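Hi L.,

As promised, Secreted protein:
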Amino acid sequence: MNARRSIAAAAATAALGAGLALAAPAAQAAPAAGAGTQGWHMLFNQPHGPTNKWSTPDFVPDRGNLHIVYGCYGHDGAKIKAEIVRTKDRKVVGRSNGSDWCADGAEKQVVTGDVRAGDAYYIRLRISGPKHSLYARAFDAH
């Protein structure tokens, strides 16, 4: 009888755990403070209304690798370019490979290892064509 109760208790615990896992994936995905997990840490995440050019506010990476994700909404022949700029001397340390189409919010990416931890940077986005809403996110590797 005790074996049946143990098996039933284990099955109920597993089902409850599975239910929590399905109900709250975002809570599980967020690492605990000081957990020491490897991956990308978000530094900046912001959308911007319709425009042809936008420079984001400054952000400061604490590692030497920087990854930006950017894009624009629209599908009318407009093209977008991105640059990662060091604030103190306005030096471009990373840029997109030419222009990419604005494709209804499709993500474009730039990764650079040419950044200094502790220095401020910003992202400069430019669109050739009609104005579109833009977004940008910056991450550093941990």
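The longest helix spans residues 2-23.

Thanks again for sending the construct details.

K.
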